[in-house]
User: Which sequence fits this backbone?
């Protein structure tokens, strides 16, 4: 999806468990939309009874128009970083909505189309497990097109602790590039079905 194809309003739920940086990921998406892309955005956060390890979600609305009500019933985009979060929210995703998962932590229903990335494993390979959320933001930026690349990079840089900007941008870029390669793979597959297989 290119920037020009983005709908006037996008409702996004980013969810997982406490300690994964879910709220920060949601804040970055909203901040990128508002400050970088000049749109309206809202963020509503919710935690389970115990914050670290409990269910946690960020509801983000990005819109061209004023947002009257910040709560989401049926998201256009669902980003899941834990199995329990997936099970809690999957039935709320719009039929044509986009599902994004952490491949090693979420096993979606076979019939459901989704974009998956081993974000936590990639973060561990970078030596920073805590950056899985930033890798996921990069991946989401590439495959969902809800915010522009430039706005996302700026929002990451201004949201992470001082001194970690370079590492976080590296993590973001890893996720973004993985997303672009996923989109290319899908495009090849789609054209391969109609043309001659090479």
Assistant:
């Amino acid at each position: 999806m290119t920037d020009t194809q983005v709908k006037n309003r996008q409702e996004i739920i980013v969810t997982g468990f406490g300690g994964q940086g879910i709220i920060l990921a949601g804040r970055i998406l909203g901040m990128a939309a508002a400050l970088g892309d000049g749109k309206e955005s809202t963020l509503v956060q919710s935690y389970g009874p115990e914050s670290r390890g409990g269910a946690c979600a960020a509801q983000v609305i990005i819109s061209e128009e004023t947002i009257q009500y910040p709560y989401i019933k049926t998201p256009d985009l669902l980003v899941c970083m834990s199995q329990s979060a997936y099970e809690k929210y999957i039935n709320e995703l719009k039929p044509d909505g986009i599902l994004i998962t952490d491949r090693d932590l979420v096993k979606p229903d076979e019939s459901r189309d989704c974009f998956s990335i081993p974000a936590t494993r990639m973060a561990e390979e970078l030596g920073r497990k805590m950056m899985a959320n930033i890798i996921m933001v990069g991946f989401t930026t590439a495959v969902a097109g809800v915010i522009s690349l430039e706005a996302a990079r700026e929002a990451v840089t201004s949201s992470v602790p001082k001194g970690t900007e370079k590492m976080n941008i590296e993590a973001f870029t890893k996720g973004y590039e993985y997303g672009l390669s996923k989109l290319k793979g899908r495009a090849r597959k789609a054209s391969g079905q109609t043309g001659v297989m090479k």
About this structure: The beta strands are 9-17, 40-47, 55-63, 77-80, 98-102, 115-117.
